Please model this.
Amino acid sequence: MTDPAPASAHDLVKGPGPGSAWRVLVVEDDVLIRTDIEGTLDDGGFAVVGAPTDLKSAMAFVETRSRQIDCALIDVELGGHSCRPLVAAMEKLRIPYMLVTAHSEDTVRDMGYTGPVVEKPFTAPELSACLSNLVSRKPQEA
Model:
């Protein structure tokens, strides 16, 4: 990562309007990692809108509630299944996402993914910096 980490989680970019928080979908099958991510997001002023733990639930969430999602953090492997269908859905809907993985970024690229990557294990400041960078690039809606 070339972007410096924010001084604290409270330095994160806020949501799409005064007093609004970015609404983040967290798709992670490991309960401890998911809990850590949710705590980091909460501390940073983000709102977790959903936390499905498997591909089927994540796909259903996106299909029925995509308008509630500003961005997503997606584990590359969900219970042994590739997140590729979910990534394709996010790209089709133009919802920014970041891949969260134990694989190296080079391995993720070799798998054919092009989205931003944060490697496990990560610190709260690393995740915060990556997510801030992601949401700062989201196209503004009219």
About this structure: The chain has a mean pLDDT of 83. The chain has five helices and seven strands. The two ends are 31 Å apart (CA to CA).
